[in-house]
Design a protein that fits this description.
This protein is of the alpha+beta class and 110 residues long. It is built from four helices and three strands; from the N terminus they run H-E-H-H-E-E-H. The chain has a three-stranded antiparallel β-sheet with strand order 1-3-2. Helix 1 packs across helix 4.
Length: 110
Amino acid sequence: MPKQDAKLLQGTLDMLILKALSLGALHGFGVGQRIMQMSAEALRVEEGSLYPALYRIEQQGWITSAWGVSENNQRAKFYRLTRAGRKQLQIEEENWERLATAVFKVMQTT
């Protein structure tokens, strides 16, 4: 049976991007790849969702970007987490933990 991609709750993409960038700077395609790797290929972020989210997060001041050269020698925009982004990631992780715990409790009710 093929493994189905998990559907993301609205608002979790920002948290996943921040988490991916907490491990180091990446270009946009690399962010999507890292999320897929961290989720054991359960989560796939399409470019049409990823790049607007990167732009939105950068406008919030949670990441910064600079042009560089990718591993395949292409010009690419690299994103890096800011201090404000690290703080936001911590807030998002705490909120996610509360939500996941609450949903788990509901689902265990018989």
